[in-house]
Specification:
Layout lengths: L1 H23 L1 H4 L4 H9 L7 H11 L4 H14 L14 H38 L8 H9 L2 H15 L15 H26 L3 H8 L4 H29 L2 H6 L5 H10 L3 H29 L19 H22 L30 H32 L5 H9 L2 H12 L3 H28 L2 H5 L7 H37 L11 H8 L8 H26 L6 H12 L13
Helix pairs in contact: 1-14, 1-17, 3-4, 6-9, 6-11, 6-14, 7-9, 7-23, 8-9, 9-11, 11-14, 11-19, 13-14, 13-18, 14-17, 15-16, 15-23, 16-19, 16-21, 16-23, 17-19, 18-19, 19-21, 21-22, 21-23, 22-23
Length: 601
């Protein structure tokens, strides 16, 4: 255990240092003269003459290159000095600490909303557990909430609640009333994801044998439900930590919509302005926050499991029964709607300006027209191919990366936490600086932040599979290590990881759409979902169909992906009643003579 802790600490430190060095080398990697960037930011009216550039280099100490600049900044950090801004010349510390405080406060409010949404989604699964009829999933509601684009939800809340109804302030950060709308925009999608994962975990744990033992012993329902929740929470606490880190650093779009001076917006501004000291300071604080959250979630997981995990003491939860009919109907209905969009939209021209601006939906234009007079049905249909194809490839790559890094154990802990703490927007800025805004650059940026949750999940699955008693005995039968991995460990770990990847597919599509929304992905006039949302967001009040169409496509894709992932598990045969009675007889023999309930696993 001590060796694993040391490896995890070293991994976190090295990952943070590498990330900071990459951030510090951004101007050099992008082949842009840092002195020219600073001169343009400070003195836009001056010509970038060699003399002026030399003066800027001498003033900022840029002659030594990126490594010397980063090391000089690090020496100041050791003394508590985060340096001075290259753009304004002022001290960085007060501004970045203020931005971190704003983002931390917004994150806490958002987590409260997310937990409330997750609890509401888990209630049906809990009721089924109480009736001894566990069933997988939180239904299409949780999936649809997960698919809601945060920036679109923020814009809708801004227009409807703040502008039209005038119930809350439209922008700023002056009090708790200004935190409500952005917290809802961030917390609702995060709660949908947590609710879905927790519902699956609760339903799976309810199938474990110890639950049947507790029922036979006459344990109260509330005691059984509490034990199920404790076991399920241990399986998803890592995902809660990753969601928390992601909310802290990934709320750039929402902060932009509501003009909130948070850390994500601060980092985006620093990267765009090539303000390297400010960028490094923000990334440093975010990396420290990621490490802190990672340590706290590890402690919480150990407490929920009752201490370190002894080998063979904690078998993985069995797969819960699913409603096959509902899964088939949901998958069929959503697939039918998506195919209808493709069938009627692909033959149309997505670039032709042949209609009135913002024309409402009609028989000729089922989805209406955009602000340029282009057919929205055609653009959404072609955008389906342009958005889902890279999203699917990203998920597959992330699953492969997750499996490979999960085998390394604690060595991958640091890169996973640091990469997850990197906002997709910041990753998009860095990739765009190297490659220029493009679909490929956006895909690399999203892959950068997609593999950590899958790696964390893969590591948990592999640990639990290897802790199963029959896996521990396999070496005594003469099975080699590679045979155990290929024939036993991977077949047990890959299917749930694939289902998790399918659940992440809509989120990946949303991340690509977010980068396109902010101009860091696909560029006009490509019919990409993020661009469609960006082009229609200014007209959401007078022409809501300009944003409803791409948002509907995102939600349909999300519901179909999760329903399809549940078909295999929902097809499992129901246990025979006689076998259940035999199990109850065997389980009852494990009770002690006084009839007391054994402790939870």
């Amino acid at each position: 255990m001590r060796h694993s802790a040391v490896l995890g600490t070293v991994s976190r430190v090295l990952s943070g240092v590498v990330l900071l060095l990459v951030a510090g080398a951004l101007p050099w990697l992008s082949r842009i003269d840092p002195a020219a960037a600073v001169l343009r930011a400070r003195y836009a009216e001056l010509e970038p003459t060699p003399e002026a550039l030399a003066a800027v280099r001498a003033q900022l100490g840029l002659d030594g290159g990126p490594v010397a600049t980063s090391l000089r900044w690090w020496s100041g950090v050791m003394r508590g000095d985060l340096g001075r801004s290259w753009v304004s010349g002022g001290e960085i510390g007060p501004g970045v600490w203020s931005a971190l405080g704003v983002s931390a406060t917004l994150t806490l409010f958002s987590i409260a909303v997310a937990l409330a949404v997750a609890v509401a989604l888990v209630v049906p699964a809990s009721l089924r557990v109480l009736r001894d009829r566990p069933q997988r999933g939180s239904g299409p509601v949780g999936v649809a909430l997960t698919a809601l684009p945060e920036f679109l939800l923020a814009s809708v809340l801004l227009v409807v609640v703040a502008v039209q109804l005038r119930w809350l302030p439209p922008y700023g950060w002056t009090g708790i009333d200004t935190a409500i709308l952005p917290s809802l925009a961030l917390g609702i999608p995060a709660g949908g994801l947590l609710g879905r994962l927790l519902s699956d975990a609760v339903s799976g744990v309810a199938e474990e044998r110890w639950v049947g033992v507790w029922r036979l012993a006459g344990a109260p329902r509330r005691v059984i439900l509490a034990g199920v929740f404790r076991r399920a929470a241990a399986a998803v606490v890592d995902q809660l930590g990753l969601v928390l880190i992601g909310l802290l650093g990934g709320a750039v779009a929402v902060e932009q919509v509501f003009a909130i001076p948070g850390l994500g917006r601060y980092l985006l501004g620093a990267a765009n302005a090539q303000d390297i000291p400010a960028l490094q300071a923000g990334v440093l604080l975010m990396a420290l926050a990621a490490v802190l959250v990672g340590v706290l979630t590890a402690v919480a997981r150990r407490l929920l499991r009752g201490g370190p995990l002894p080998a063979g003491s904690l078998p993985p939860p069995p797969e819960a029964r699913g409603d096959g009919r509902a899964a088939r109907w949901t998958a069929g209905a959503t697939l039918g709607l998506l195919l209808a969009i493709l069938a009627f939209g692909l033959p149309r021209d997505p670039y032709a300006i042949a209609h009135a601006r913002l024309a409402p939906p009609s028989l000729a234009l089922p989805f209406g027209a955009d602000a340029s007079g282009r057919d929205l049905l055609a653009r959404v249909a072609h955008g389906t191919i342009g958005t889902l194809t890279p999203a699917f490839l990203i998920v597959l790559c992330a699953i492969v990366i997750g499996l490979l890094l999960a085998v390394l154990g604690e060595v991958s802990r640091g890169p996973a936490e640091i990469a997850n703490a990197t906002p997709p927007i910041l990753a998009g800025v860095i990739i765009a600086a190297l490659m220029g805004p493009s679909v490929g650059g956006a895909a690399l940026a999203v892959l950068w932040v997609t593999w950590p949750p899958l790696t964390s999940h893969a590591a948990s699955l592999i640990d639990e599979v290897r802790a199963m008693p029959h896996i521990r005995w396999l070496p005594l039968t003469g099975a080699s290590g590679s045979e155990i991995w290929v024939r036993h460990v991977l077949p047990a770990a890959v299917p749930p990881l694939l289902r998790h990847g399918m659940l992440r597919l809509p989120g990946v599509a949303l991340a690509l759409a977010a980068l396109g929304f902010l101009g860091l992905g696909a560029q006009p006039p490509l019919p990409e979902w993020g661009l469609l949302l960006s082009e229609g967001i200014d007209y959401v009040e007078r022409a809501p169909w300009t944003t409803v169409a791409p948002a509907l496509a995102l939600i349909l894709t999300s519901v179909f992906a999760v329903a399809l992932a549940g078909l295999r598990r929902s097809g499992r045969r129901e246990p025979d009643p006689s076998s259940r009675r035999r199990f109850r007889l065997v389980a009852s023999s494990s009770l002690d003579r006084r009839g007391k309930v054994s402790s939870a696993p």
